[in-house]
Amino acid sequence: MKFQYPGLTVYLFLSQDIETTSLPIKSLEYDEQGVNKPSTRAFLSGTTLLDNHHEGNRLYAPLKGKQGVYGVLEVIAPADLFFPKKEINFISQLAKVAGKAIENTTLIQNSNRLVTDLRLINETSRQLNSNLNVCEIIKLLKGKIAERCKYSQIGIIHKANNDSVVQILEGSTEYFYTEAGTALVNDLFGKVTSKNDGLIKGNYADGVLQFRSLMAVPMQYAGVSRAMIVLLHEKPYYFTFESFKIVQALIGHSTLALSNTILKEKLEHAAITDYLTKLHTRAYLDDRIKEHMEVGKMGSLVLFDIDDFKKINDHYGHHIGDRVLVQVANILCESIRSHDIAARWGGEELAIYLHECNISDSEIVASEFLRK
């Protein structure tokens, strides 16, 4: 174009973001002010427009393909130079050729992307069927989303059936553990989980000024949404509609596996946990002691009994006795190391198993617990 018309200035108005600085590209504007501009009118109408401007005469030729318009070619001539009809027709035809080339390239790119996305989803589905735990599923999902959508922050949010507080699951990035992140989650959760299609914003500034682009997708299971994934990025309009759709697909394929795994782990935890004190059951304690006796060097089992517990139940009622049991169990948990095991031995009897601990050290631990 520059070789044919060396005295003219040429720009391209494109309908999609192009990450390049080597071409004279401008963005089409679709707001109320931009829709009246000749470049936008040429794009929307698909017809070539002339605009006599005090800074020069301008020609706007749409880049048309068979399936749509992909942009506008702007040609600026000096104020004393007008476009002959022959040249207008030539530039319009040139713009059409360019439009078809853009369309063909776009179709090829879309086809390649769809193939890549399909492979990504199939690979994700295959890996989800390999008996992963919750942390492994979240790690897998984060990695797959990152392959297609380069986020700055990601939050995996969940709310239990009867819980009024949302839970930020392990695997979420640091922002979601801040006060601002928690406020954002609380604001979004109801809005996103009540919809089936999620939310994408390119200029989000409601309380999260450092993040302009936001994508939030609900995780639906059996028609109910109790979880969502939120992606954030500092740049405005960073997430594309195509990336939004693939994230939806990845989350849709992962939701069933994640929901089932969360339920499975809850059931497994309930099977080894005393419902009242939340300590481990005696059966679990016995199994762990047997395992440790085969591989460990030493260990100590300490039993505790609450004095006059029957009198507490008889005088104050069993509900008060239960509160006493829970309080003692909490103190017991605070008195041991993270790798030791606390359990309800039976009734008002509690027990702890201290790994690699001799009799003298176990007596010290028991004495400290009794003083509390």
TrEMBL record:
It comes from Paracerasibacillus soli. InterPro entries: Diguanylate_Cyclase, GAF-like_dom_sf, GGDEF_dom, Nucleotide_cyclase, Rev_trsase/Diguanyl_cyclase. NCBIfam families: GGDEF. One of its GO terms (molecular function) is diguanylate cyclase activity. It is an enzyme of class 2 (transferase). Its EC number is 2.7.7.65. PANTHER family: DIGUANYLATE CYCLASE DGCM-RELATED (PTHR45138:SF9), REGULATORY COMPONENTS OF SENSORY TRANSDUCTION SYSTEM (PTHR45138). Keywords: Nucleotidyltransferase, Transferase. Residues 297-372 form the GGDEF domain. This is Sensor domain-containing diguanylate cyclase.
